[in-house]
Structure prediction request, 837 residues.
Amino acid sequence: MKFRLLVWGLVVASSSAFGQRTTLDAYVSKHKADLFKGGPGVYLEGERLKVESASIAAFHRKVVEIGDLTAIVPTTMIQIDDSFSKQPDLYEGMDMRSKIIYLLSTLTPGQIDQITSRGVGFGDLNRDQQLVFESLLPKKFEVERREVLGNDFKTTDKFTLNDEQRKQVRLRITRTVSFDFSLKDGKGTVQPDSMDNVGLHQVAGFYRQLSDMQSGPGSIFGINVRTEVPNKQKPSDLNYSAKNLDPLVGFSAPVTVQEALASIGQVVHLTIYSDPRVAKRSMTMVGGKARAGDLLAAIAQMVTGTYRRVGSQYVLTSDLMGLGTRKARFDQWEAELRDYQYKMSDEWGAAVGKSSLLKAAKSSPRDPYQPTKEMEEYLAKGEGAIPPNLVDDGLRSMVAKFNEEYTVQPVKVDGARAHNALSYHFALPSGEDVFEEAGGSIGQFRTFVFDGQRRQGPAAPTPPWTIAKGINVSCIVRTDEPEQIRGLVAKAKAIGMSELWVDTLDSGTLTAAVDASTRSGLKVKYVVRPWRSVTSSDDLDRTVIGTTGEEAGKWALTSKRLNRLREPSEVTRSMLAWENGVSPDQTPDDWSLMGRLAKTPGLAGVVVCDEQPIGYEAKLGEGYSIGNSPSELVGRRLGYSLSMRSAFLRMTGVDPIDLVPDGLMSSVNVSPYFFPDMELMGYPRTYGRIDGDEYIIHPYVAQWDDFRAKEMADGLKRLRTKVLAGISVPVWSDLLPGLSNKVEGKIVPLCLMTEDTPFTFDGGGAGMPFGVNLANIAGARFVIDSLSGDEVKWQLNLAIDGLSKSPKPITCCLDLSRLSSSDVEKLLGSWFVPVKN
Prediction:
């Protein structure tokens, strides 16, 4: 099959001369012989595309030959570089505040005196500092002088600095007062800076600085990841040259892309779906029939897309990599770089705190609030609410002006707090101060007094612990080796554990655990993970981690960010080889084996864990403050099962890995042509192009959530009625808050598994550690999910503390199933004190 580009320059002078708009249909009809040379041809959107200058280039289209078929395709396409092979420039990704803090950290004592008085400009800085200073100035420095009139303002003057004037601008740092005001309705607080609203009190000049992050760029950290390139065929899972695609196919009337793919599929005995964003686009074919493979290739190039295989089916989509997958990759990559930036920003801030800057900074005469001597003494202490005797007329006036401007959220002076802070603004060559429209706060003084712990949270408690009598502590271990389980039973007994939960698919291992526990008096429960399955060799789930469990483990172990967050210990490894997801339309092969193992004589019970599908939504970790950011948890739960993707594709025509859930916050625009999604365009969205097509795909995100919840619930019903039916020992299962496919916390409640057991709970009742509500679940227990290092220690400490205070008997089980048996023994030996016989 051959691909050949034909360049066209036909122009119809009469259309251009009179400004008439010509449709692509009309253009093709008039120039059919020249375009298609009497053979078959195909194009999209014949009625929708209209231009005034009637040439093929005016339609932003070109003509290509694919075999004997001629196709009119877009001239260009969007190419996303997601290789992450280029060295990022961390400075390019900084926000304005971080850049200023970096500059301040490099200043000499003499420069500090200047910047806190007349200001510093290009002539006062060395070469490296000048580069930073240049990046702080708006490229087009526009200034507006404004005067506030009630709840509005009027512009009294407006001008733009020329290049020479821009080079003479100086940066000034002043000390301001940062307030914490309570809203009058008592439903929150606001933290204005005294200089933020200078325009509320006097005529002032303002400039606007749009950051790179606000513009939804195609580049990030100095790397251009989104480029417009000539349109060409993309790699495809569908072999266009295959013999089974030789049959001829034609359409005598316009059809939608979706209809065309369905018809072609019937002829060549393939099931081919179309992503909804291109499914309803109109396709016109002229000149007779064409080979099916050539026509499929043309359709893909006409939407700058390709075909991805999902099981035995295909879907016309943007790329082989899922759109959601790509966004998750950028989210993870950017999070790693941002983490490093935060670390560097802390170091620069610490340098600022150790310099003379905080003492040298003075209040600006333009500051609407000038502290009294007594207020200065209060600010120096930086503690407690402002004493009533210090609430003077100046403070009341500032609050009154604030409430006059912001009538919806009025604040009150009572109970307010105040802190010394730093602020920046620029001085024009004339000496006039101009202020950033969005405010110039750099931060309170206390943010520059860095003790090395501010971003790390509370220090973890120091092991080892002693398991006191009456406190039920157990752990989950994973092994298929009988000899290993005997050693683990002995170790658990030696440190005073009451139970050992065994995760295995080997009957000999489970029998050995029961035998060893019978002699030691330790109870053994069998752990069933119903959604664990083996990754098939032909699984083309192109997720963040690749296509196999081996690649998954390699990714987890080599990720710089994950390794930074882990404690540097040989026992804190995390492998993802068996995390492959849910099978909604068939019982997993090992369910029958788990059912037989659950009937092993001598077990004290069965525990069903991990009752949620695996995916890469930020929902899995959003909002937690235990050391794991959303994107790290995203990184540990990656990809969807092939069978679930196939089932959803059959139902909707959407491959779930093309969906971008809310919360994957990458600031780079990775949106391609023809497959728009506001979630792909960087943030904030108000700066991106808004088009109805960009919302077509979004409802499918909620539909996917509902679909997974239903499939998982149906699977659990099968598990209860078929696999675990007739078991004589108690069966416990974990409950999930809200929708059954969301993970809202690290401590998961368990309840007895019966026919009437709900799959979810809505909270309520007394709170347990980390806010898990267990009061409405009789005899509830909870599991701590496996984390690593200090995070595990911290949660374990809270859990044990919760056990000692609970009025009901509760078992705390620490999930160590991702560690090797030898690592588990080392960890238990270092965390717990052996009990005396």
Q: What stands out?
A: The first helix runs from residue 13 to 18.
